[in-house]
Amino acid sequence: MTGHRGAALLRGVSAVGLALGLPVVLFALWWLASADSTNIFLPPLRRIVEAFGQVWLSDVFVRDVLPSLRRLAIGYAAALVVGVGVGYVIGRWSLIRALTSPILAFFRVLPAPVMIPVLLVAVGIGDATKLIVIALGAVWPILLNTADGVRGVDDVQLETAAAYRLPSWTRHGLILRAATPQVFAGARQALGISLIVMVVSEMLMSTDGLGFTVIRFQRTFAIPQMWSGVLLLGVLGFGLAKIFELIERRALRWHQGATGREESW
Amino acid sequence: MTTASRTPAPARGLAGGPAASRRLLGVVGLLFAAVAYEAVTRAFFSPLHVPPLSAVVPEALHLLTEARFWVATGRTLLAATVGLVIAVAAGIVVGFAIGSVPWLLRVTSSTLDFLRPVPSIVLIPVLVLVLDVGQITVLLVAVSCFWIVLFQVLYGLRDVDQVAVDTARSIRLGRLARIVHVTWPTVLPYLGTALRLIVSVALALAITGGLVMGAAGLGELIWSSQESGEFTGMYALVLLTGGVGITLDLAARLAERRLLHWHVATRREVAAG
């Protein structure tokens, strides 16, 4: 009775302990080891944390962090729409797949940051360039994974849908739904890429944004502030990945149930 | 997820037919794209900013005869390769160390989970203060690829057949022999997948290092031609960079196939193709 509940509680506590244990230890080690640091490049963690509060919890958040996030969101959303749409068409019709496969092979291996100077010249230095670069970097994994997923849909399911004479829109919906695990795999990869491209594009051509601000701190030797920016980028990467994981888990609950597979981390 | 399961898709429709017709269609697609690009650039853009393909391709061919292109490519590939080797070695060692000790995996998994999505380029501003740009580029490649290798090794270790382990134990194979005969062959397909993934990641970061920090190589060459206004040269370099990427990708696939020639998925692919 209470023993049962106590055991469950204990398990919960130990799971939290396991999850937090090492990070807390590492953070404490960094704190202690850097406490008396006089090396200007490796400031004490205490000063980095102070700088974090001063820098990012002020109007800098509105001026630099929000524009970055907005660009990331718009670019990524555009990549999702285009990637899933075009990927569906390519995956569904083999003629189009055969026609496009060499071009896709080229863009798949072309590193996304290379497009920054290209678009800088073609479009200019404005916000549009950054949005296009982020979208261009993120679109390929989504597109290719969607195409693969759509192509890999079970033939029996397709034939069943045809035999039941489901209207074609319903059938398209079913195929897309069957492909969602792969779409999510691509979208997860694309999220990491779009964050990287966002930072690189801001480092190379910007007057605001996270990447720009961190580089500016580094050039003006505001080292604790720079470290705080690096930490913020790290937390951002982690936070976005976690949010994505939550959405994915919800959206693919049926899939895990259907296949009996579950990611444990 | 990037698991190693690859079932050949059933042949369907036109492109599922002979490979020759598929290749022909690919060439048609390429030609069509080239014509479309040519038309769009000529119609809507100034040739100074977005040069048509008829200007880019000759420039690219010209670059192929120039030493500076090959030197830059060599440097980029060297940085990518060194970083890659470090990543594979470290990923295998750390992966096996963590993955074969259950409590270690439990203690570290949250930390690994936290560190993996942190983009490695956030290290650039920190590292620029202490290392030279060439070393940083290698380090960026190594860090990014390390995570991919590490997680593939961990996935692979999770996939090891417990019955096989118990069998090996019951015929009194030692720890080392168990790793060689049971664990390693299970992990190898996952490493093959990792190899295919990290080659393009390595190229991307080696080039990013050149773009952002001016580390000598293709990225730096592209950025400097942009800054000096040689836009046709820059487009040609981007085209060639894609070529380098395709070559590397093919090499990685070949290497994977050699590495896994004994594996069921590869044998099936060979039989089908």
UniProtKB/TrEMBL annotation, chain A:
Keywords: Cell membrane, Membrane, Transmembrane, Transmembrane helix, Transport. GO terms for biological process: transmembrane transport. It is found in: Cell membrane. GO terms for cellular component: plasma membrane. It comes from Micromonospora endophytica. It is a multi-pass membrane protein. InterPro entries: MetI-like, MetI-like_sf. This is Nitrate ABC transporter permease. It comes from the Bacteria. The keyword Transmembrane helix applies. The keyword Membrane applies.
